[in-house]
Amino acid sequence: MKTKIHVNQHHIRANSKGQDLPVLTVKTYKQNIKCNQVQINGPSTVVYSPEKPLSCGAKVWIETESEVLTG
After folding, report:
1. 6: exposed, middle or buried (C-beta count within 10 Å: 0-12, 13-18, 19+)?
2. What's the confidence (pLDDT) of residue 42?
3. Which of 16, 33, 39, 40 is 20 to 30 A (C-alpha) from 68?
4. Rounded distance, CA 9 to CA 2, Å?
């Protein structure tokens, strides 16, 4: 199953103003998991695609078919 991981810049900005939101989003076809730590157990690829961003607006993300552990 392909997994995409990206950083939520809006949460980083909110956290700098005193909030405590998770800054990473782990997306699969089943779900979106928000967290602050990700472990990828295998190969992965960093993608930069400014012309075709993800639906959330992310232009840089990590893609992997490997197991992903969140924390």
Report:
1. buried
2. 98
3. 16
4. 22
DSSP state, residue 18:
T
- Whole-angstrom Cα Rg for the chain: 12
**Structure token pair of residue 4:** 């995409």
- pLDDT score recorded for residue 28: 95
Q: What is the pLDDT of residues 19-71, one digit of tens each?
A: 999 999 999 999 999 999 999 999 999 999 999 999 999 999 999 999 999 99
Quick one: pLDDT at residue 1?
92
* Measured distance CA(56)–CA(14) in Å, rounded: 17
Is 38 within 8 Å of 70 (Cβ atoms)?
A: yes
Six token digits for residue 54:
């993800």
* Nearest-angstrom CA–CA distance, 3 and 15: 25
